[in-house]
Design a protein that fits this description.
Chain lengths: ~625, ~625
């Protein structure tokens, strides 16, 4: 381990270092991040981009009195290294180790747990108002990326916080725009003048100079860039922020450490909401990441020297979803694909290239994406909104109002449904089955295998009326017994039909159930598996099959309360079922670990199922 | 009935009228609206404000080819009168009659069903893209109010639609800003020049003139005005909209019919997204409403001559909530109240006057409101977010992330929980129990009476850890049996403890259950009522009490699937309950009617309960 970082046990230790030492520290931090992420996977490019910014923040401000709120939180690794967690840093995203996101339960330095985008200004403003009301000391700083500004919540936050009568700092960490040398010169000039309170009154004198700063740089290359550019062109002129009630300062070079320190020192003295526009380079200091910041945004473990991932590629549910949608769209010009800033993650890259007119990246704007899909559908198009389960939570009201009530055909490709693993409690896709289950008229498919996904997508578009969600897990398809013959319909039965005990489950838990079934068979406990493919509505045949058993176990990779299992039990008991029924789902937020470890902790792996069933069958 | 309106069977009939006749028609429409709303209740001020705008839109555009999307939809009465529904207009908001909002199922002229704010730009843009892709003809126009622009979704819509390469019209119906005579002059001048495509290139010549238009008028009187003003000051200068990709034209006097017609005719010819800023007066043409537009925003039936409501005032759940919160805040300086533009509706007017520093109106920004509350709570404040059940759907993700995962104390005062009645399917509060039920760690109280609400609020703030929702119905407390003695705890039992049959219910359905119980007793069917006050978690004693019965009926004024009843049944059967259990909740969207009529249709009134129970007990 490197020398300086070894002696940083709290941010106060930064105050002892001189500028050269701080710069050496930044270099050590970058090494530590690259080293650890290459082993554990994680968010690389965004963390490398804000090393100097974080060091400057920690050097200038005195948290935890001064509260820093990280938007999304996937840029908080430097923050963790500097706040007493450097020794645990190699455990990041591992079971029992540090979270990959700020977490109030992990450290007093983590002001607000994050994970979803665009919340920081709202949370920080709440903290600032609380401090003002209760007379608590300290500055409040929200650090938000340019991508997060495409989410409407960020505007709501700005609109509300702008009326605050005290110091309140929003740092716009803009990692898309590069500063040309000439702009850098005027920026440094303005940085010095404009952040010194004494010079504020002279502001009007430099307005002319400001006019010469180009606000948009680089070619406009794809739709998300267009979306971001649109926002950028609006926001990055001081008028916008100043009209919202903020003083605007910038742009500053976020990798110029002495300048950042000076800027932040001055910012803390202004008795007003201020916005500091800081320009950083995603992936800074690791050439592969600098060149391909999108690829290195979130990564699996990789070889540092080559930049190549350790795991071999191959199909996964997202890629199968994407290629299936391309085949369907080839034949049907009504099909459109919508994503909220997750083109690569949801497997839509090929679609976006082949059908650019029918591809819509909305930015991080799930609410708009759902309602926009409803609008498309109202005119007879066939919109498919591909979205991670955890982010679809943002569109709950819009699914109800702008899809279900309209009685239109919108298909939701709900990616990363169920446990996602290392990203932890903020990202687990454990709510979608339950919240979609509350909405009248929506059909929900939950395939376990690629061929099921393909069939389900086809049925969603052409067979089933109204809105349909097709939800599938992160990663590749699981174990499949050679003798499993799927019907492609709403449910399948697998195993001895005369067994007195049944497992009912859906999605990839079927694979675990199959493994459990085999082990139980060897123990002399025959079990039939009733595999739900359509989890809303539930086929009567599936309920009847369970009702004929003496004992029924329902395993669910999602919230138990309000989930599919409770509804299944209701249907089961409505059939005058007289046996025993057990429900085993998720009862609480699920912390980070590998997906397999999470399922094990939850008792939803094969061993857990075996244990649950043998215990109950003994009694 | 008046003469001209009697001959308008479709918008095409408007094209036969000359300007004088159109103005006569506007006057007739106003009479019809005032007359009908005085009888049926409804949205008065917003509808009176956009009569000329709607007549102009219908005169110029040829729907349904030209699609008009009304934001929120509570300003669509004129639209309904002009689109073949004048004869049914007296039935508006009545059972079986017209909906008070645009409704795709009601008329081909209703492009998109609405009810919640800030969705129109997103929906309209989806419609516009669909038309472009499929080659369908017609303009697309979104009509959005200034209040709706405080919702982040509107920005998401603007940010996405701004990149459209074709005609797309957003009409900002601004009913807060009054045009002074001098501004009106320049506005008319600009209206003529700027909306004529031929003059567009001369735009720069009039920029100087534009600088003289004051963008903020009138005194800043309260926090919602501040929020709106903030947005207005940002938006109403052309820079903002033009940076978002829109051409900005305005402000125009929305009551100047010939000008509106000319402006709209020109707007339709521009090959680009454009924003027309139209200024209207809420309540226009009815003096009481003009003077007090907030009071006449949504009204019950009233006397036209005096403007006074027919029903006498008195306590309701909102007022009891508000006064209780005031008493508590008097003694505890940590208590804050938050509302998303519903200060009056949620009973917070007194609070806002007495504790202005601890009162926060966020505008129509439920997402921000939840996260802001989480921020306040993280610093030890006691935020209480008062919000209608239906609008809290917007904050589902934020409740999970920014409250539940943070493990902070936020209290949700969930007003209008359950059936609301006349506002219909978009406003029924039938989802909150189910979606809150999915969130780990949240406690939910569902009082039936004022004294329970008071106790529950106190428990929510001081006894129960973590987030708590206290949900209560619209209106006044229902029938209360004289011998009902509440314990003030999680559940109560009422009626013969030795009865073999139980009704389990919560909230105001308890009153209906009591009436049913009495009638059933007379029929020789004794029933005990198990009344849940805390519906999450459910007290074991309540489940045990039900488990001792032979037959259990669960009645629920909320979604059945994923609801409290299914969870109760799961708990019941986990106790090896061997009897019969029946669940009776809501299975579909509930159309408009009085709340009593809705409950009757749903079988959730006393008669419905009696019928369900006698039918089942006969079998």
């Amino acid at each position: 381990m490197s020398k300086l970082l070894d002696h940083i046990d709290s941010p106060d230790d930064l105050k002892k270092l001189n500028l050269a030492q701080l710069q050496q520290l930044c270099s050590e931090i970058r090494s530590a991040i690259i080293h650890t992420v290459s082993k554990n996977g994680g968010h690389l490019a965004s963390n490398l981009g804000c090393v100097e910014l974080t060091v400057a923040l920690r050097r200038v401000f005195s948290s935890p009195d001064d509260a820093i709120v990280w938007d999304v939180g996937h840029q908080s690794y430097t923050h963790k290294l500097l706040t007493g967690r450097r020794k645990q840093f190699p455990t990041i995203r591992c079971k029992g180790g540090l979270s990959g996101f700020p977490n109030r339960q992990e450290s007093k330095w983590d002001t607000f747990t994050a994970g979803h985008s665009s919340t920081s200004i709202s949370a920080a403003f709440g903290i600032a108002e609380a401090k003002a009301l209760s007379g608590k000391p300290g500055h409040v700083i929200a650090v938000i990326g340019d991508g997060a500004l495409t989410g409407g919540m960020a505007y709501e936050g700005l609109n509300n916080a702008g009326r605050f009568g005290k110091n309140f700092i929003v740092i716009l960490n803009d990692n898309k725009m590069s500063i040309s040398r000439s702009v850098g010169a005027i920026a440094r000039y303005l940085a010095q003048i404009r952040t010194k309170p004494a010079y504020l009154r002279a502001k009007s004198h430099v307005e002319d100079a400001l006019q010469h700063i180009p606000v948009i740089g680089g070619p406009v290359c794809d739709s998300i860039t267009v979306a971001k550019t649109m926002v950028r062109s609006v926001l990055y002129n001081s008028t916008f922020f100043e009209d919202m009630g903020f003083n605007y300062y910038g742009p500053f070079d976020g990798h110029n450490l002495p300048q950042m320190i000076e800027v932040l020192e001055n910012a803390g003295q202004i008795d007003h909401p201020i916005l500091l526009h800081v320009v950083t380079k995603k992936g800074r200091g690791y050439s592969y990441a600098e060149e391909n910041p999108d690829t290195y945004h979130g990564v699996s473990s990789f070889n540092i020297l080559t930049g190549k991932p350790n795991a071999k590629g191959g199909d996964n549910f997202s890629s199968v979803f994407g290629s299936t949608l391309c085949s369907l769209a080839e034949k049907d010009s009504r099909i459109c694909a919508i994503t909220a800033s997750m083109k690569t993650g949801t497997g839509l890259e090929t679609f976006s290239r082949r059908f650019p007119k029918r591809f819509f990246d909305t930015g991080i704007a799930e609410e708009h994406a759902v309602t926009f899909s409803g609008g498309l559908a109202s005119q007879g198009m066939l919109p498919v909104f591909a979205v991670y389960s955890t982010f679809l939570q943002r569109g709950y009201d819009q699914i109800i109002h702008d899809v279900a009530i309209q009685k239109v055909k919108v298909v939701f490709g709900v990616d990363r449904a169920g446990i996602v693993g290392e990203d932890g409690e903020t990202h687990q896709g454990i709510f979608d089955a339950a919240f979609l289950n509350t909405i009248p008229g929506i059909t929900i498919f939950s395939p376990c295998y690629y061929d099921e996904l393909i069939t389900d997508l086809h049925r969603a578009l052409y067979e089933v009326p109204g809105a349909v969600a097709v939800r599938y897990p992160r990663g590749a398809e699981p174990f499949r017994p050679a003798d499993f013959l799927r019907t492609g319909r709403d449910y399948d039965r697998y195993g001895p039909a005369d067994a007195s005990c049944a497992i009912v489950t859906y999605g990839r838990l079927f694979a675990n159930a199959c493994r459990a079934q085999q082990a139980l068979q060897e123990k002399g406990i025959p079990v039939e598996i009733i595999k739900l493919n359509c989890i809303k509505p539930i086929a009567d045949g599936a309920v009847q099959a369970a009702a004929d058993k003496q004992t029924v176990f329902f395993f669910e990779e999602g919230m138990q309360q309000g989930g599919i299992g409770e509804h299944f039990l209701y249907l089961l008991f409505s059939k005058q079922f007289c046996g025993h029924a057990y429900l085993h789902g998720i009862q609480d937020f699920v912390p980070h670990a590998t997906a397999a470890q999470c399922l094990q902790s939850l008792g939803l792996d094969a061993d857990g199922m075996i244990q649950t069933i043998t215990t109950e069958c003994k009694n």
